């Protein structure tokens, strides 16, 4: 295989990798909804169950949950229950310190060993089946093995204090100083992944609190999970933002147990007081927008001012060094040597000239004054800037407007194959912005649906346990679906009511709402 063929093959793989990343982002988190029949009329089957959720696979990935509502009027004083402190009541200080303490097991060697022994023994006993403790997150509260859960949680009994301290602060800074890092793509985030495990354990504490009817504790624990979202959105990395999103979703997956409990407060106004959106990506998207130039700093120097060939010879060395070890297609440059790189660049100069002239509008007179290597890297930079902004620009529109926009990925894939190697950094480093925003919106949609459910709880308490005929009847206004900026789909029927969120994308939430008989209230 020639060097040129090898790099072309890697180009095609990089496009696939980017598509897979987008799919992973889209599929992360809880996707709920329900479709009774596929387009051909066949009944859909439940593919899996996780606790109270039933997941279905059909034309779209769906899941549904039946929520048997406990009537409860709005809380008084209305704003006295909060998941996240307001600026006046928040403690000064840095939440990151307490997250590190919660996940670090500092001076807790015996507890860590006992925790791992419990997990290893449970794994061995389960064989190829789901095993404790994580199977408990897929267990309904009524079926929770309370004593076993208590035993396991005893190994991390030091965590709640630190998580309470973290949640009481608005500021969260892990002091990355990322702009000074020479190789940001190689920057590791082990503490962020460790905190995700802390979130799972925290969800077990929530389930235990519900099993023991400690609803006030459950509300507090859920608030600590929700706080992880805006905290990790202060990070400059999308991956940290998505872990924060996952932590919130771990909690929201269990939240409806509160809506079903007679002693749980109505949380309508607690949800209303949360930041909107809860998952804010602006900081990480600003860094991701400049990521290629942060990783390959030499590319910032590329412009239309002619430079001598010796400069470009040294430039290739710097570029190759800054691209090494990143597990991208351009890693291959290190193995083909300087002569091979020069040959690969030369073979792609005609495509680079074509791109700069026909797409970027540079004159051939201007291009004739530039060395071939400069033409190649100028096309590489311009291509990245153009398609980076095509990907990012829709992030500044509301979701219902973004849906009308033509996705840039179609043109991007076509142009990638057409223009070859100049597109490699774009396909390797351009983040799946729209998929990340979909994850953020999915969380916001879950919160809006939950707030609607709490509004219905208030209605039940003030209307003799009767469900509203429409959402317009609610005294506490139902929020709009963040995906459409319009009302949620709500249908009253003989067995209760159905509340649906809009599809996002290929995923849908659906709640089957039921009322408790008067004797059970």
Mind explaining what this structure looks like?
By secondary structure, this protein is of the alpha+beta class. It is 51% helix and 7% strand. The chain is built from 20 helices and six strands. It has a six-stranded mixed sheet with strand order 1-2-3-6-5-4.
Structural class of the helices, strands and pairings? alpha+beta
Rounded Rg: 27 Å
Order of the strands making up the biggest sheet:
1-2-3-6-5-4
The profile of the biggest β sheet is: 6 strands, mixed
Number of domains: 3
One letter per element, helices H and strands E, the order comes to: HEEEHHHHHHHHHHHHHHHHHHHEEE
Q: Using DSSP, what is the number of strands?
A: 6
Per DSSP, the total helix count is: 20
Distance between the termini: 73 Å
Mean pLDDT: 87
Helix content: 40-55%
Instruction: List low-confidence stretches.
Output: 1-43
How large a portion of the residues is in β-strands, by DSSP E? 5-15%
Instruction: State the shape.
Output: globular
